[in-house]
Each structure stands twice: as structure tokens, then as C-alpha cells.
Specification:
Strand content: under 5%
Number of strands: 0
Order of helices and strands: HHHH
Number of helices: 4
Number of domains: 1
Helix content: over 70%
Shape: elongated
Distance between the termini: 65 Å
Structural class: mainly alpha
Length: about 90
């Protein structure tokens, strides 16, 4: 009986991994797009800051318990790019 439930468990695990992979790819696309738009330098500073904040909200929607992860991985990229584009100290 235990052997019969293993394929179902493997299928559920695979589905969970597939879902997480899709969410990761979606977040990567959103982050790349936001960074590209900011790098173009056509946005006013406040719009660039709002775009960075909106990207963080998307990340938290996709991964609700990952605010620290976003702050470690992506926030520094946004800060650095905004500093460079808008020549902030």
C-alpha cells in the first residue's frame, strides 16, 4: 500500500517543483525588465523608485515569505542601478 502512494507523492512533489520553477522564472523576467527600464534612464527618479518597489511587491506575491531574500538578492541591484543612473551618492 505504501508503494502505491509513492507515485502520487512523487507526482505532487514534481508539481510543486514545477510551480516553484515557474514562479522563479516569472520573478526573474519581472526583475530583468524592471532593471532594464530603469537602466534606460528615461524615468524620473520617483518613477524608478516606484518600479523597484512594485517589483518587490510582485516578488512577495509570488513568494510571500521571501522579503528577506528579495532584500538580499535584488534590492542591492536596484539601489546600485538607481545610484548609477541618477548619479546619487
Amino acid at each position: 500500500m505504501i508503494q502505491e502512494s509513492q507515485p502520487a507523492l512523487a507526482s505532487a512533489s514534481r508539481a510543486a517543483l514545477d510551480d516553484e520553477s515557474r514562479r522563479i522564472r516569472r520573478l526573474q523576467v519581472v526583475v530583468r525588465l524592471a532593471l532594464s527600464i530603469i537602466a534606460e534612464g528615461h524615468l524620473p527618479y520617483d518613477e524608478a523608485a516606484k518600479l523597484a518597489a512594485a517589483t518587490r511587491r510582485v516578488a512577495l506575491t509570488l513568494f510571500p515569505d521571501s522579503s528577506e531574500t528579495f532584500d538580499l538578492l535584488y534590492a542591492p541591484k536596484f539601489r546600485q542601478l538607481i545610484r548609477e543612473v541618477y548619479r546619487l551618492q
